[in-house]
């Protein structure tokens, strides 16, 4: 089971020097490269500094590598030296840091050049290839590990146990819905030996409370538009605010300012309509998708949002969740790619019948590992 890493040695040290009773925080220490097989999970919302914290490890290697042969014996298991660090990033994440060099270990406030010790991979098989091709590397930093397939957790566990390799995971454990990101996130938490929680300031302009959650929104004509609950699970966003329905933005938010419209609708209406469609009762789903596509105010979703939020604080912002559009596309992708309720054949038929945005659907489904090619209409 993972444990929360804490260190009270700093408090004991200060007491030994005769300091009065104070609120003494944990010691800021350099990284431990001696212990083999650690699997360190860094959790926190976007903007909490997970990747930047990992960059400290990279900087610490510059000091640790200058030590003598005795230290090398402490940091090595076989040929793998844990002072040799390799940075792994998802191919999906290339879009986030377009303005940086190809070998950049990039984070919000800067970057470090990694030279040959960086790779963009698609899945756990790519990680296995990197480990095989770099036998002297003893530490891997895997950024946003939740973007990868579940098998990655077991590749990591086996390599750490068999070769003493250490793995660092600066990753989201919770998604923008405040749920476990996916099964990969659950499995990484299960195999972790250490967990370091990080927070950020809430990025709402009127708040400075600690933020634990990642908030997704779109900016349309300068207005903040919260993502609907059934927005696609993976939508790659950059670190600069972008305007438009296709580009998601992310903030760290506290509980009060983390807005998530459409959750009740998803479970009370959308999923039951999808389940009815599987039984051959497609009229209700088709009617709702037609409304979401062409007359949003006649939809059950609009009625639900008006009933739930119109007279409440932030009610206007909740209703702005409909401004980005593509609502029918998102609803159908949720039923197909995440809930596995409707079939690909039914998805294809509805997309063509309703003349939905095929380029958006194809890209987003591909990013979410459920690719569909909408070349020919499927007939039911």
Q: Describe the sheet with the most strands.
A: 8 strands, mixed
Helix-strand pattern: EHEHHEEEEEHEHEHEEEEEEHHHHHHH
CATH class of the largest domain: Alpha Beta
Structural class: alpha/beta
**Binned strand content:** 15-25%
* Strands, count: 15
Distance between the termini: 49 Å
Residues in helices, as a percent range:
25-40%
Number of domains: 2
- Shape descriptor reads globular
Number of helices in the DSSP assignment: 13
For this structure, the CATH topology of the largest domain is Rossmann fold
CATH superfamily of the largest domain: P-loop containing nucleotide triphosphate hydrolases
Identify low-pLDDT runs. Answer: none
What is the architecture of the largest domain at the second tier of CATH?
Answer: 3-Layer(aba) Sandwich
Radius of gyration: 24 Å
Mean pLDDT: 88
Structure description:
With 380 residues, the protein is of the alpha/beta class. It folds into two domains: 3-198, P-loop containing nucleotide triphosphate hydrolases (Rossmann fold, 3-Layer(aba) Sandwich); 213-380, no CATH class. It is 36% helix and 18% strand. The chain has 13 helices and 15 strands. It has helices spanning 9-16, 50-64, 69-75, 124-133, 151-163, 183-191, 263-278, 283-294, 300-309, 315-319, 327-338, 344-354, 358-367, and strands spanning 3-4, 39-43, 76-77, 80-90, 104-107, 110-113, 118-121, 137-142, 166-170, 194-197, 200-201, 210-211, 213-220, 223-226, 249-253. The strands form four sheets. Strands 1, 2, 3, 4, 7, 8, 9 and 10 form an eight-stranded mixed β-sheet that branches. Strands 14-13-15 form a three-stranded antiparallel β-sheet. A two-stranded antiparallel ribbon has the order 5-6. α5 packs parallel to α6 and α8 crosses α11 (327-338). The longest helix has 16 residues, at 263-278. The chain is globular, with a radius of gyration of 24 Å.
């Amino acid at each position: 089971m993972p444990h929360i890493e804490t260190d009270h040695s700093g408090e004991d040290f200060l007491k030994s020097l005769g300091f009065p009773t104070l609120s003494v925080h944990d010691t800021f220490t350099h990284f431990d490269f001696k212990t083999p097989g650690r699997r360190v999970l860094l959790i926190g919302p976007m903007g909490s500094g997970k990747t930047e914290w990992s960059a400290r490890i990279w900087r610490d290697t510059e000091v640790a590598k200058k030590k003598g042969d005795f230290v090398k014996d402490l940091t090595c298991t076989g040929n793998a030296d844990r002072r040799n660090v390799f940075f792994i990033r998802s191919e999906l994440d290339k879009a986030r840091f377009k303005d940086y060099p190809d070998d950049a270990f990039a984070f919000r406030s800067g970057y470090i050049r990694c030279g040959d010790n960086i790779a963009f991979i698609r899945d756990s098989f790519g990680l296995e290839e990197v480990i095989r091709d770099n036998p002297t590397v003893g530490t891997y930093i895997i950024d946003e590990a939740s973007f990868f397939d579940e098998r990655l957790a077991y590749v990591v566990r086996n390599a750490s146990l068999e070769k003493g390799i250490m793995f660092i995971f600066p990753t989201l454990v919770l998604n923008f819905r405040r749920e476990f990101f996916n099964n990969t996130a659950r499995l990484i938490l299960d195999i972790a030996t250490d967990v370091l929680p990080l927070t950020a300031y809430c990025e709402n302009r009127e708040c400075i409370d600690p933020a634990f959650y990642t908030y997704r929104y779109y900016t349309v004509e300068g207005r903040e538009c919260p993502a609907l609950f059934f927005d696609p699970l993976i939508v790659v966003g950059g670190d600069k605010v972008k305007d438009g329905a296709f580009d998601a933005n992310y903030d760290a938010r506290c509980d009060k300012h983390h807005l998530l419209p459409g959750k009740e609708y998803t479970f009370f209406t959308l999923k039951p309509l999808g389940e009815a469609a599987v039984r051959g009762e497609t009229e209700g789903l088709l009617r709702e998708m037609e409304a979401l596509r062409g007359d949003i105010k006649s939809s059950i979703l609009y009625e639900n949002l008006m009933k739930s939020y119109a007279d409440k604080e932030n009610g206007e912002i909740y209703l702005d969740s409909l401004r980005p559009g593509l609502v029918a596309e998102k609803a159908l992708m949720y039923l197909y790619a995440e809930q596995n309720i409707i079939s690909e054949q039914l998805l294809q038929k509805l997309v063509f019948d309703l003349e939905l945005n095929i380029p958006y659907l194809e890209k987003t489904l591909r990013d979410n590992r459920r690719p569909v090619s909408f070349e020919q209409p499927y007939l039911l």
